[in-house]
Design brief:
single chain; Helix Hairpins; mainly alpha; translocase; NADH dehydrogenase (ubiquinone) activity; 0% strand; NAD; transmembrane
Length: 100
């Protein structure tokens, strides 16, 4: 039977893999890419917090990581709002790199 500690490593790895797969496959809209990045960050946070708990190390490092992930999410949503206001949609094909 599978132990609890191996499941705490396996499930976050599957989450990270699914996030990478979603980021690579569904890259038509900017919102899909941002959601895939946040799902990967959630998997990394879960893996890191479970491993730091098993080691007995400081849990403050995982809280710092969670704070940075929340800041990354808010910056991504801000960029999404700016892109939708300037271009009208979030489809990557409609962006012109030469346009300011």
């Amino acid at each position: 039977m599978v132990s609890f500690s191996s499941m705490m490593v396996f499930i976050p790895m599957v989450m990270i893999f699914c996030g990478v797969w979603g980021f690579i496959t569904y890259n038509k809209h900017m919102l899909n890419s941002l959601l895939s990045l946040e799902f990967m960050m959630l998997g990394v946070f879960w893996l890191m917090s479970s491993q730091l708990t098993l080691v007995g190390s400081e849990i403050y490092f995982s809280l710092f990581f969670l704070t940075l992930a929340a800041c990354e999410g808010s910056l991504g949503l801000t960029m999404l709002i700016l892109v939708v206001r300037s271009h009208g949609n979030d489809v990557f094909k409609s962006f012109n790199l030469l346009e300011c």
